[in-house]
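Q: Structure tokens for this one, please.
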Amino acid sequence: MVEWIVTDGLTDYRAAEAWMEARVAAISAGEAEECIWLVEHPPLYTAGTSARAEDLTDPGRFPVYDSKRGGQYTYHGPGQRVAYVMLDVAARGRDVRCFVRQLEDWVITTLEQFNVTGEIRAGRVGVWVQRPEKTPQPDGSPAEDKIAAIGIRLRKWISFHGISINVEPDLEHFSGIVPCGISDHGVTSLVDLGLPVSMADVDVALHAAFDQVFGPLPAVTA
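A: Here is the predicted structure, written as tokens:
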């Protein structure tokens, strides 16, 4: 069983990290179930293990937290659904690349429920949507905006950190960083795309998509 927890209001980032650390330790020790934790944070920037100082373009704007997740700078704030993913990757096949693909598929399958086509791109972390109404890219292909970020860490094969989907955040808040080190594409949200989607709608979609993509833990045979 995977326990789902939804926390209302805004969750302090360091408190969230401490809670995840404790839950990961408990899962590893066989004392707790896997867990998906859905939260929102106050406006802040986080620096992943690959973050470059020059990508923090407005360091005094919001609190900045060093994070143990992979990736570069990202923004969290109200209107963005953060899904922290504490799963036993060893029991699910010990394949980190496959696990990351599953996270991407989870986001894409969630977006499909709102008739949004999310796509992944080589060399660009996260999930993207085409914006044909915007100025095309230099090579003539449609403009693309990022709608979801992915960044995880494993400890003893238990994952933590996870994904974030832009539901209705203040997109201008992303301007204080180069999101995930990518400066030639923008960011968007479900509401920015013209969809009257609530956080509760996204939570329902995440739950349904998770069951499709991940399913139950494989049975253990003696």
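A few notes: The mean pLDDT is 93. DSSP finds three helices and eleven strands in the chain.
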